[in-house]
Write a structure and sequence with these properties.
heterodimer; A: two-stranded antiparallel ribbon; 2 strands; 2% strand; B: mainly alpha; MetI-like fold; 79% helix; 0% strand; globular
Chain lengths: 280, 268
């Protein structure tokens, strides 16, 4: 039986070459681009700190950074909290087949256009939209929901809630049931069981869900733009504005690099705390 | 116990509300696409097909649909081939740099699309591929190959490892064993990976918007309409896209499930 090295490398190398050329190279080039200069609307390859100094010294950049970080954090807290009772129900209170169906239903939104869903929210949340029309029947409203942080968070939830519920459900369902029963039999109250038994056991999965939620919210431009009013712009909107109107690709690259560094830091901190041994 | 029933009722009510939140925008978008008001609210206006007629008669939408179709089919083929080779490598071989190798493949979905879009825009301009359909195909393949790899890898882990070795012992070389044993076994996963990667590519708008130039895909057209004003055409396009994607997803799911069920029945 002749095992050819040709076969081995034919299977192994294509993806390395492909991702090297079209995933790693573009990211490295983007980092390099943050040091290029733009002269007469043309980008020239160079190595100057100008773009970095310019962006770092602007208040609007830091406002934008604080807003984006704050919104993504708020979104993570809200989504994790809203998702938990749903995931808890799906993990402990329904049959296996119901859970499978629920997860299948939760996958559906990934294959519907996110843009169209946000457009739909725009119409639902508008001042003369569906929600305010319903509230007016009971004599309430109208409430302003568009162009507010509330609008942005609704948008982020549209993007992240299904994924977070799925991840939470899996991490809760993987807990050894006998440990929960043991806590119950030893007289531990339900709330205390959640806090002292379930949460610690599901910690890794829950933190991964939170990290994903943060990454998705931090990088999304659709919700803050269409539902949040983009005043002030978040970092992704800043990238779009800088690229689409100003031809200032290098400055957009600075924003993108700062975003990447932030996300790496958050992901690293999350993973480190997820796998840290519990100090007692 | 009464309290437990109360709690259970509360939890199920809560779960229902969460599902309402998740599906409200999808349902409303479909309802609005048949609604005659330009700015739909409650009570609903009359039934109409005019938004569908508008998009049906719009040559730009047709052009975009053609581009989208071509892009997503090409993406599905490339991503599934790459994903298969990678999944097989992970299944069959152990080597030192494997964690790095796997990270290289699995990382793209964790990078925000807007950052990938900027990086791809600049890189394709640099290597002379800007504004071309092929650059959208390449970018979407990078994005979807991980999904293809994951689906096929799951299927491979259900395979009896001695099956391939048996084929070798019976004199098949590695290519023949791959063609006659591995690929037929992975067929449902390959079909489902094909459908899912096509569906993801069919919906992706951020990267496509940055790098497409004049070759707009359907989501890019939607993005441009939405940026302009309130136009219920978007709901009509959205419903059409939803139908396409859902068909692909359901095919993927059914193919995988019937195959697994058959095998389960077979083994008793």
């Amino acid at each position: 039986m002749a095992h050819w090295p040709v076969f081995k490398y034919a299977m192994r190398l294509p993806i390395v070459i492909w991702q090297g050329l079209f995933f790693i190279a573009p990211l490295i080039f983007m980092v390099a681009m943050s040091f290029f200069v733009v002269r007469n609307y043309r980008m020239t390859e160079d190595f100057v700190m100008k773009n970095w100094l310019k962006m770092m010294s602007r208040d609007y950049f830091w406002d934008s950074y604080a807003l984006t970080f704050g919104l993504a954090t708020l979104s993570t807290i809200v989504v994790m909290t809203v998702a938990f009772p749903a995931a808890y129900t799906l993990a402990f209170r329904v049959s296996d087949s119901t859970r499978r169906w629920a997860v299948f239903l939760l996958i559906i939104p990934f294959f519907t256009s996110y843009l169209v869903r946000i457009f739909s929210w725009y119409v639902i949340l508008a001042e003369s939209g569906v929600i305010n029309a319903m509230l007016s029947y009971i004599g309430l409203g109208p409430y302003v929901m568009l162009n507010t942080k509330f609008g942005t968070i609704v948008g982020y939830m549209t993007l992240t809630l299904p994924l977070v519920i799925i991840l939470q459900t899996f991490s809760l369902a993987n807990i050894d049931r006998s440990l929960i029963e043991a806590a119950h039999n030893l007289g531990c109250k339900p709330w205390r069981t959640i806090y002292r038994v379930i949460l610690p056991l599901a910690r890794t999965g829950l933190i991964i869900a939170a990290v994903f939620c943060f990454i998705l919210s931090f990088g999304d431009f659709v919700s803050p733009y269409y539902l949040g009013g983009s005043k002030p712009p978040t970092l992704p909107i800043l990238i779009i504005d800088t690229v689409k109107s100003g031809q200032q690709w290098p400055r957009a690259a600075v924003v993108a690099v700062v975003m990447m560094v932030t996300l790496f830091a958050v992901a690293f901190a999350g993973i480190a705390s997820a796998y840290r041994r519990r100090g007692s | 116990m009464n309290r437990d029933r109360l709690l259970k009722g509360f939890l199920f009510g809560y779960l229902a509300l969460v599902f309402v939140f998740i599906f409200a925008p999808i349902l409303f978008s479909i309802i609005f696409s048949f609604n005659s008001d330009r700015f739909p609210t409650i009570p609903l206006g009359g039934f109409t097909l005019k938004w569908y007629e508008t998009i049906w008669q719009d040559p730009d939408v047709w052009e975009a649909a053609r581009t989208s179709l071509m892009v997503s089919i090409s993406v599905a083929i490339t991503a599934t081939c790459l994903g298969f080779a990678t999944a097989y490598t992970d299944y069959r071989y152990q080597f030192k740099l494997k964690p790095l190798y796997l990270a290289l493949i699995l990382l793209p979905p964790t990078i925000p699309l807007i950052i990938m879009a900027l990086a791809m825009l600049a890189w394709f301009a640099k290597i002379g591929l800007s504004g071309q359909v092929v650059s959208i195909i390449i970018a979407h393949t990078v994005l979807t190959a991980p999904f293809a790899m994951a689906i096929i890898r799951l299927r491979l882990s259900q395979m009896d490892a001695s099956l391939e070795a048996a084929a070798w012992n019976l004199g098949a070389d590695q290519w023949r064993a791959l063609r006659l044993v591995i690929i037929p076994f992975c067929k449902p996963a390959i079909i489902s990976s094909f459908c899912l990667t096509a569906a993801v590519s069919f919906d992706e708008f951020a990267i496509a918007w940055f790098i497409s130039g004049l070759n707009k895909t359907i989501p890019v057209v939607v993005l441009e309409i939405v940026t302009g004003n309130i136009d219920p055409q978007v709901n009509a396009i959205g419903s059409f896209v939803f139908l396409t994607s859902m068909t692909l997803v359901i095919i993927a799911q059914v193919v995988l499930m019937t195959k697994e069920k058959k095998e389960k029945d077979h083994h008793g």
